[in-house]
Amino acid sequence: MPVSPRAGDFRKLDMDSADDVALLRHYYEKSNPFSPLRVEHNFGLLMFYCSAFMKHFVYYSAKNEAVVIAMQNGPVLICFDLFCDVGKSLSTLVNELADDHVYQAILGFTPSEDRLGEYEKIEGEDILFVYDQKENLFKDRKLMFPLLAHA
User: Fold this and answer.
1) CATH architecture of 11-149
2) What is the CA 96 to chain-centroid distance, rounded?
3) Average of pLDDT values for 120-135?
4) Superkingdom of this entry's organism (predicted)?
């Protein structure tokens, strides 16, 4: 997704602080309103990531009332997941978190609405089996499990 960086009030959360972990939990319970396929009721899995190798990638914006888990990687912002109330703007959150030199964001979840950008098939060793006697959510849509849903 294209990015136009602008000033925001995002700050890194300290995953060693009980108050900041409580803030993350509060927003996690709101879920990701931008994705039709999201993980809910599994804060332990999120903390598996956020208390170890992703502990420096957790950001909070009081103005936007949102928590974003993202990593700046050169000119790309990798947005693994975000949590806020319905009615917020995905573009605003991404643009305000991005460093000045970032021009593209990669989403670690499937966005609800059709967005400008590229979609590419991710090759890997993960396999999802879908029972053919039940509804197949993946049949006619481009969906992926959120990156932070993998254990």
Assistant:
1) 3-Layer(aba) Sandwich (3.40)
2) 15
3) 62
4) Bacteria
Give every CB contact of residue 11 below 8 A, 6+ residues apart in sequence: 59, 60, 61
**Nearest one of 29, 39, 91 to 64, comparing CA atoms:** 91
Pairing of strands 76-84, 104-107: parallel
Q: Phi first, then psi: what are they for 48, rounded to 5°?
A: -55, -45
143 Cα distance to chain centroid:
14
List phi, psi (to 5°) of 135: -65, 135
Residues 2-49 have pLDDT tens digits of 999 999 999 999 999 999 999 999 999 999 999 877 777 789 988 998
Q: How many residues does the chain have?
A: 151
